[in-house]
C-alpha cells in the first residue's frame, strides 16, 4: 500500500509535497485539488519528502503545472527526486518545469 500524499505550506511560503506520488495516491489527491491548490502567483514546490514517484505522479505534476499556467501562475520544483528527474527526461518534458534549486536528491 502506498503512503498517502500530503501538501502543506511552509513558514517560508514554499509548499511541500510528501508521501508517495504514484498511481495509487494520485487519483484521490487530484480529485481534492480545490482544497489544496495554491492561489500564489509563483509556487515553489519542494519534493524532498516524496519517497516514490511513477509516471502517474509525473502526469499529475504536468497537470498541476498546466492548471497553474491557465490561472496565470508559475510553478518551480525544488529538490526533485532522481527518479522523477529521469522520468521527466525520458518523456522529454523537463522543459515544462523550472527547478528552483537545481538540486536532485538520491534515493
Explain what the structure shows.
With 107 residues, this protein is of the alpha/beta class. It has a single domain (6-105), classed as STAS domain (Transcription Regulator spoIIAA, 2-Layer Sandwich), CATH 3.30.750.24. Helices cover 33% and strands 32% of the residues. It has four helices and seven strands; from the N terminus they run E-E-H-H-E-H-E-E-H-E-E. A five-stranded mixed β-sheet has the order 1-2-3-4-6, with helices on one face. Strands 5-7 form a two-stranded parallel ribbon. Strand 1 and strand 2 form a beta hairpin. The radius of gyration is 13 Å and the shape is globular. The chain starts with 5 loop residues before the first strand and ends with a strand.
Which percent bin holds the helix content? 25-40%
Order of SSEs: EEHHEHEEHEE
| Total domain modules | 1
User: Main beta sheet, described?
Assistant: 5 strands, mixed
The gist of it:
It comes from Enterovibrio norvegicus FF-454. By secondary structure, the protein is of the alpha/beta class.
What secondary-structure arrangement, pairings included, does this model have?
Blueprint: E1 6-9, E2 15-21, H1 26-31, H2 33-36, E3 42-53, H3 55-70, E4 74-78, E5 80-81, H4 82-90, E6 98-99, E7 104-105
Amino acid at each position: 500500500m502506498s503512503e498517502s500524499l500530503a501538501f502543506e505550506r511552509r513558514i517560508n511560503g514554499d509548499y511541500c509535497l510528501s508521501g508517495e506520488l504514484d498511481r495509487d495516491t494520485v487519483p484521490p489527491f487530484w480529485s481534492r485539488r480545490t482544497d489544496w491548490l495554491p492561489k500564489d502567483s509563483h509556487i515553489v514546490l519542494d519534493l524532498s519528502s516524496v519517497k516514490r514517484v511513477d509516471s502517474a505522479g509525473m502526469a499529475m505534476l504536468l497537470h498541476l503545472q498546466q492548471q497553474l499556467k491557465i490561472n496565470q501562475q508559475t510553478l518551480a520544483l525544488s529538490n526533485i527526486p532522481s527518479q522523477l528527474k529521469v522520468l521527466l527526461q525520458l518523456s522529454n518534458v523537463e522543459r515544462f518545469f523550472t527547478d528552483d534549486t537545481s538540486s536532485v536528491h538520491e534515493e
